[in-house]
Fold:
Amino acid sequence: MSALTGWWSDPFRKPRVLQTLTVGYLLWSLLPVVIAVVFSFNAGRSRTVWQGFSFRWYWGDPERSVWHNDSLHTALTHTLVLGVLTTAVTIPLGVAFALGVDRWHGRLPSGANLLMLLSFVIPETLLAVALLFLVTQLTTPLQLGTSAQVAGLVTFQLSYPVVIVRARLVTIGKQYEEAAVDLGASPLGAVRRVLLPLLAPAIFASTVLVFADVIDDFVIVRYLSGDSSSEPTSVKIYNTARAAPSPALNALASLMLLASFLAVALGLLAYRWLRRGERGERGIESFAAGG
Amino acid sequence: MSLDAPPEPDERQDIAAAPPAARTRVLWPVLAFPGTLWLVLLFLVPLYVVLAIVFGQIDPIFRSPVPVWNPVHWNTVQFQDVFSHIIGSDGFFGPALLRTAVYVLSASALCLVIAYPVAYYTARYAGRRRGLLLTLLIAPFWISYMMRMLAWVNLLQNDGLVNRALGLGGLFNVQVDWLNGRGLVVVLGLVYGYVPYMILPLYAGLDRFQPHVLEAARDLGAGRFDTFRRVTLPLSIPAIVAAVLLTCLPMLGDYFTNDLLSASPSTSMVGNLINNSVLTPGQTGQAGAFVLLVLVVSLVPMIIYVRSARSEGVAS
Structure:
């Protein structure tokens, strides 16, 4: 007993309790997903009893595997299409917005910035329903399906590049572009040839974050999907998880997981490379700051 | 400028900077314009459409909503209709709203109890393993929410691994029907879903701590708990507020966790009320009224979060 109280009151002891809690949390948070991925390789139909290893649910099964089943295949492709399109619109829009709002002072830009931050914290369901009403009640160029989904996703994701680029602008300061302008560059030239290269890591990081976040999105893409051809992976999982599940669903989800992790891993490597030689580089931490 | 200030530098600067400065004044608004327009058209306008539908009419034959754009002609019939069903003998929405509050509050409290020690350990003691630990803590962000819920649907099935583990691998026959209207499962599902969103802001806040402050407290005679209660906790209040808001807000609109882990009206939350009525003809206005209700409730937390994010210079 005295050993225990002695251990407890030792100010230099290792934080065993916290350590155990942290390890326990990590197991709880990641193990279920690992198990779900493992069962995507199950040879049988069960998602709870292991019946041997196979790629049946990826491409082996001629009807129900991800590769051969049309609806699963479509979901996968549509998810990736949404990811690419949304990222392609969000990043230029967000970077320009960040530059403009950061350097232009006054009521108008701070109002726009407030709007952007609100779009970041609004519960996603509310935004999705509001956008659904917009698309169905007003005559707009947007149609339920890909166009409405991309428009909605861009609205919800716009804050990522803005927040990340603005955080980077703070550390860059104004002196580089002022020097460029003093040396005869036009304002646009200074942005293009001085600021944008300096912002490249931030732009790159937000590209990866937006892509990885979009392919996981559920709420917006579900309400704004048209027919079943515009239902991405997450909606497919939602629709079939309780009704007619098979390990093919786990396989589909595992593929999305792989896509996200590949994007983030590539992003992290490129981010490190872009920021090589900088002092105070903290790798994953500064990269994760936006998430 | 006072008299003794030399005039030359100012003048020189004016001459050199004036033309580009004038052009810069045009450049920044031009850059900010497309994004601003986008937010107005696809964020503000949709919210106005919600108002126009909630306070609009319903087509008497097709039961479809007829939005009324002019606020002067708004009528509150649909809104009153929803409100009359919240409290009182006819109040079939009341329980779901109350449940939302209970579920969201208890899930957030549980999230905090889990997230705080983990974030604290990572910020203070992770040492060389910090990179690995952070990677593992961030990993759930890149796993789709649906995938994470699917994982639990698999585990909690009647013949799932949880029941088998409880039956000690076949020794007993445990047949707990986890996925059928159990409030506790829904709350734990919400905790599982949103706890990563709480750990990161907490970590960011706790990481900025100077360890000297804690060492000083210990040196001055404070015990472990006193140091925590009187130094660590007060200093981490802003991070806690930001983290709790960041998890509460999406939970308020959550309906899918409930659908996947319970699928029973006995656990439905306001998100389910929205989701169930939004695609039902004649109930669009009702869905809009709930959207408005949640929006009004979440407006204060949203503004608190935005203000705290602004004062810290970051938004996440």
About this structure: Chain B is about 70% helix and 0% strand. The two ends of chain B are 42 Å apart (CA to CA). The longest helix of chain B spans residues 8-54.
